[in-house]
Structures are given as structure tokens and as C-alpha cells.
Amino acid sequence: MLSNVDFFARRCVWVNGPIIVGAGPSGLAVGACLREQGVPFVILERADCIASLWQRRTYDRLKLHLPKQFCQLPRLPFPDDFPDYPSKNQFIDYLERYARAFELKPSFNERVKSAKFDETCGLWRVRTAGGDADEEEEEEEEEEVEYICRWLVVATGENAERVVPDVEGVADFGGRILHVSEYRSGECFKGENVLVVGCGNSGMEVCLDLCDHDAHPHMVVRDSVHVLPREVFGKSTFELAVFMMKWLPLRVVDKLMLLLAWLVVGDVEKLGLKRPSIGPLELKNTHGKTPVLDLGAVAKIRSGELKVVPGIRSFFPGRVELVDGRVLDVDSVIFATGYRSNVPSWLQDTDFFCKNGFPKEPFPNGWKGNQGFMQLDSQKGGFLVLLWMQRE
Question: Signal sequence span per UniProt (predicted)?
Fold first, then answer.
């Protein structure tokens, strides 16, 4: 028997197959492969659409950072007339076509509140409630559903919750403050002094977009960062890495990648972008930190249109004081400070994940299953996982 006396306190649904949490690209891919094998499954999605990150929380100019052949899902390639780097809308269209082709019908507006493995019967108990709880609001009493299944597949990714640092004085700033997930275009920032906090791929591209719309961005760079060109002499940097990984050790590939980066984008340390002490691929594999693929931001730094500044000490009305003592007049602030996984908040009584949301078992062990549990796209390796798969 199932343990816990509350078994009959909510509507229960038996799933004679896996439950997949997340209807992003990974969740859809798993569903399609299961559909081909005739295995029943249920996809739970907290939003009201597939790929909600792409549809609701990305800026307009976004394109895939990797060539399309590395981003297509199983059994359905991208259309031949798509460019090498499909746009945001093209990728969304592709995912919607993929869902239709494999008759994938996620259960939308179902937010997982808890998932627990019941050792007495060897089954997973997954409790859901309605709606997406991104905003911190008091939860009204809502109907809960409990799903019972043998297998649980987590495909929620690394970008479930926004990360916004608590900076002294931010409540007194008075200007516009938003997270990069709310940013769409630099058009409404024309002529403004904009402080972009963060120098990852999103931060760099938002700064580039602001420059293109005649805003005046300052980019806060606190940590070291690897900046690689998206292409080297017309070839994708990622594609070159895939080729080299077939023959060379990771650290050798890292050294070659840095040499190519120096030849194409130059010495970025002179621009205030200090490189980490370990290579870009090794850093991604060990710490989960993704290198930046430059789309033109470095040229804007060189021209002076984009200014690099150090960390923030404090906010004041309409101004910000930096750690080096400088004070900037600022109209708007964009926190390009990333996301984190929310799996540790609802996955109960397991030792699968660290507090930061990354799995404790490195790739590919997380795919092998433990108590019927499998996690897909929260790996520190990220695109390094794709490299590994290409190498195999």
C-alpha cells in the first residue's frame, strides 16, 4: 500500500509510464521518443505553453547560439530553408511543429509542488497545483492533483527561477529596474543611461541591442569570463570544438580555443574582461559557467559605445556608486544575473541534487536512472554534454 494517510485527500491519477516534468525542448524530445516506442507518459508543464522560457522570457533579437544541426530534436530536423542560427520565432515554430508531429499534449498549468519516492511500494508520488508561481504571491487555496508513477523524468532545465542579487539601496533607486527575462528590445531605452548587471551571453547581447537602439549602456563585470567568437573564419566555434574533441584531450582543445579566440576577438583583458585561470570547456564542465559567444559586443567596447565597469557598492536615487568609488547617473537597470534550477525546492527526500540545482552525479550518470528517476538538462556540462555525445 501507498504510505501517508492523505492518499485520498486529493484527486489521484495513475500514470502507466513516466511522468516528464517540463515541456521545453528536452521534455518534448523524451516524449517523442517514448511515443515512438508506444510507451504511455504524461508531460507536466507549469506554464500554459510549450517552451515557456523561449516564448515568455527571451528578448526579441535572440537566435540560437549554436548551429541548428546541434539543436534539432530527435526524428525531426530543422527545415532546410532555416538559417544556420535560427531566430527565436523560428525555433518556437519548430518546437510547436515537433509537438504536433508526435502528438505531444502536455498538461499545462500544472506546477509540481512536491515529488517523493515511496519506498513501501516503489512508486513516485508527484503533487501538482494550478498555475505558474514565478511571482512571490500568497497562494490561494487551489485544487491539488497527485500523480502516481514508476518513473520520473526531470526536464525543467537550469532556468526555472530568476536570480536577482540584493544590492544595498536598490529600493531607493527610483528608476526602472527589470530582470533580463523581462527585456524585449532596446527601443524603449533610447537615449537612456542603462546599467546592465552581468556579462554572460544575455548581458552581452542586451548591451549590444541597447547600443543598436542608441542607448548608453554600462556593463557591470565582477567575475572573470571567457569570451569566444561565435565563428572562426566562417566555421562555428562549437563545430570546431566538436571536431577537435574527437582527437584531442579537453585541456588541449581549451588551449586551441583560447588561441583562436585571441586571433579573432583579440586580447579582451585589455578591455576589462579578465579570463578565468582554467579553460572554457573545463570551466563549464566543473563549475557550470558558460563561455560568452561574442556577437559584436566586444567591438562596441572597443569603440567606447559600451563601457565596462566593476561591481556595485550601492544604489542612490538616479545614481549608482561602484566599488572603485565612481558614481554614475543611471536611468534604468537590467539585471542579467541569470537563473537557477528550482528542482531542490520540490524534489523531496533525495540526494540527487546540490542546493544550487545541479545534479550531484556528473553526466552521463544522471541519465542512468536511480529509483526510476532521471534528469536531463540540468547538467553542469551544458553544451559540453553535446560535445561528449558527438564524440561518442
Answer: none
pLDDT tens per residue, range 180-237: 999 999 999 999 999 999 999 999 999 999 999 999 999 999 999 999 999 998 999 9
* Crossing angle for the helix pair 280-287 and 250-265, to the nearest 10 degrees: 120
Distance of CA 296 to the CA centre of its chain: 21
Q: Are 224 and 274 in contact (CB under 8 A)?
A: yes
The single-letter code of the amino acid at 198 is G
Distance between CA 136 and CA 148 in Å, rounded? 28
Whether 327 and 309 have beta carbons less than 8 Å apart is answered as: no
Give the pairing type, strands 327-329 and 161-162.
Answer: unpaired
- The one-letter amino acid code at 223 reads D
| Cα–Cα distance, 129 to 10 (Å, whole number) | 11
Q: Which three cell numbers stand for residue 4?
A: 501517508
- The answer to whether the predicted template modeling score (pTM) of the entire model surpasses 0.85 is yes
CA–CA separation, 112 and 197 (whole Å)? 31
123, 150 in Cβ contact below 8 A?
A: yes
Q: Concatenated DSSP letters for 309-327?
A: E--EEEEETTEEEETTS-E
- Measure the N-to-C terminal CA separation of the chain; round to a whole number of Å: 43
181 vs 49, 56, 130, 221, CA distance in Å?
17, 8, 22, 19
**Alpha helices in the chain, H assignment, sequence order:** 25-36, 52-56, 88-101, 201-212, 237-245, 250-265, 280-287, 297-303, 343-346, 383-391
For residue 103, give the nearest of 43, 174, 146 by alpha carbon.
Answer: 43
pLDDT higher than 70, residue 358: no
The runs of H, that is alpha helices, within 79-224 are 88-101, 201-212
Of the candidates 46, 51, 5, the one whose C-alpha atom is nearest the C-alpha of residue 24 is 51
What is the phi/psi pair of residue 55, to 5°? Answer: -80, -30
